[in-house]
Amino acid sequence: MPIHPHQKLRMTDEEFANEFEHHGATWMAEQHGVVVRRVFRRREAVERHLGRKLVPPSGGEHREGPVELEQPVAKFDISDGVVLVGGDGHYWPGTESAAHRAFVRMASELRPKAVIFNGDALDAPSISRHPPIGWEDHPTLEDELVECQVRLGEIVDAGPRGCRFFWPLGNHDARFNTRLAAVTPQYRGVPGTRLVHHFPKWSPCWAVELGGRSGAVVKHRFRSGMHAPHNNALWSGRSMVTGHLHSQKVTPITDYNGTRYGVDAGMLAAVGGKQFNYAEANPQNWRSGFAVLTWHKGTLLPPELVSVHDEDKGLVVFRGAVTKV
Hints:
The chain is an alpha/beta fold.
């Protein structure tokens, strides 16, 4: 689109905030045919009107509100063994995806040293800053919370003795604390007012560092866009496993420092689930599944993916074999 220096961004503040936080200033300037500085000027006005900071997807720790963590970066030493990484369950009451069932099974069969739920267990549309679509019916936050307790409990029960469970929080998870902090700040510190209070067997954090500096970092998101896994490994200088984009892929990078991997672990939710009604039945570059990380004598081997082959039939693919879960 041609650039018009004096063109205005004709959208509501809420529409601007949504686009800015999902795509960033450069993308918006190109899409709307304006100079980047006009996007940033509008950003300042929107921040004043909405009373909060707008953070672009590549702007570091993007969170929807104040989430206090005693351990922002969890560290887990591993030289031999398996770590499972899955996330984006967006658990919806009354539904159980093939990817989740496979994750529970692998937590038992592969006997991992650690299991990482990489953000967005909750979907939490009822407390989202985004308005509902028409008269769509959302589950209550209580029902969602109970569903998450059941599903994450199944994962814990399947894990072997001594397994550690980490939960890098996602942007949807953050909605729980954000809503309470905004509406009832007087309840700060009261038991039950933080999401982590309801999941005592999981260690909450923003990121997990596995195997030291030569290992990998697992966090919900870092860079954005279709090349995010590549850019995550490139700009972090480490192997990195993320979720958020639901696109499930492994991208290796080799340079003078050796080979490292950018991994999108995919989503434990089913593609096309009720929680994604906002996608308007459009095709999405999403894939259900999760990642398996294996260390051998201190070295991270090429990451493997467990992918859903057929959601309705409950078929998943791992290491060339199709299995029913």
